[in-house]
Fold this protein.
Amino acid sequence: MAKKPIVARRHQPWADDVHKVFRDMDVRQMAYVPDGGLARVVDLCLADRKMRSVLLTTEEEGVAQMAGAWLGGQRGVFLTQSGGVGNCINMLSIIQECRIPLLALVSMRGQWGERFPWQVPMGQAVPAALQSAGVIVQQVDEMDRVGETVAAAAHLAYHSFRAVAVVISQRLTGTGGRG
Amino acid sequence: MATKPKRRSRRITLERRAVVKRILKDRGDILVVTGIGNAAQDTAAAGDHDNNFYLFGIMGGAAMVALGLALAQPKRRVLVITGDGEMLAGIGSLATIGVQKPANLSIVVIDNQAYAATGGQDTHTSAGVDIAGIAMASGFAAARTIYDRAELEAAMADIRDGSGPCLAVVKVHVKPTPRVALPNDGTWTKHRFRKALLGDAAFE
Amino acid sequence: MAKTKSRSWPDEIWKVLKDQDVAQVAYVPDAGHTDLIKRCIADNAIEATVLTSEQEGVAMLAGAWLGGERGALLMQSSGVGNCINMISIAKECRFPLLMIVTMRGEWGEFNPWQLPMGQGTEPALEAMEVIVQRVDDADRVGETVASAARLAYDSGRVVAVLIGQRVIGFKDWRK
């Protein structure tokens, strides 16, 4: 399902670094619910013929898919916005219980200049909610550190059989904030 | 175009253990993911196998685990054996799977129209919700509801070899079945499953 | 290990729901709540709705409140993990929400898969600033649910009563 990227690089320049990590680490499956914060990452994955990207009806499906991918010998990455994290807490049980690697990218809302109040409750709860489910949280809010953080998280997840979430600050995604 | 599903009041003739045993007969190299509860029990009763991955939690997640597996292993047949309650808890995954159209994936829903594991409360299917209908409407290649042995036999080709995704709801008795011992340490079954499937590559 | 008391605590909860004029109860079937569910289904004054997944109940009871009715949400601890995002609506709009949760994965649990959510329920709820009130004695269940209900309905908060596994007793698959 190749698609030409539609989100310009200048809006989310760190996205290309992230996709390169997926390539380097042989990530073959991606699961997502459409999200502005990770739009360019999604587009690059959709255009990548080596990756199979699955559109979810709700985020918890993606956690289960990642477990299945690992059982089948493939690495995957799960993309979600902060709100979606709150749908996944129970599904993360399989990751903890079976020690299956999970690499997740979370784009934050309700955090930096957010204009929509309904995003704030879940946005503020993301790190604590993830940690309650045994997920290692690695936050990043500098443009030139996103790539290295995702790379480090990927290594940690795949080699140590853990769930690791890279939480990308709203400051970097440019969604839901001022203007 | 869409019509209200007819409430069928057909006699329930099938017994769950016999159904699953039949479905897994001469299983070859089928990979099986089970849903929580009775489905895991039924699958183990048909014979524990390195190619079985049993779930004991994450209600609603079985079909998506199977999708991830099916996409990773396109040359292998992947079969989900689950219950009606578990399938309904993740009903959106039928849409997700319908979009991806994995040819090697089949889902079998053993429907006793009750939540057996938690006290036998009624489920949505006992009120007429048609899971096979939802699957067809979601883009599945084939989906049906099975009430008797003849219909089960007629469905076997699709379930085991059909170009999928396929789904079959099998209506069974609510009668209790004897408990079977099966491994529930998910870390262990994960390694067992991957070693059998991937050989040494499992540890790379 | 024996259960702490005879199973009258579901009846105690039902009495509280009646006292508090709870008109809607939403549930996903759960062994620990079987008796209470049956009571609610049999009660003509309570609309009991079976859910496919717990988060449906959070949304549904927000709607109930909009319509002027009080509700209660029954679930097992694993179901809490499905609700965390949906609780945003209750938090954001200051809707009351009374959650009555039977705990697994903490007292004599035999199913290892229950442990993650069993141990994670409290911190997950607290991440969303849900007020958590635990009860581990059968004869305190009634008063705890009563106080949680008043807190929820009168102060527009999300309150979760966690009924400890010690109260439920533990289910053994092997029997």
Notes: The mean pLDDT of chain A is 93. The helical segments of chain A are 14-24, 39-47, 60-71, 82-85, 93-98, 120-132, 146-160, 170-173. The first helix of chain A runs from residue 14 to 24.
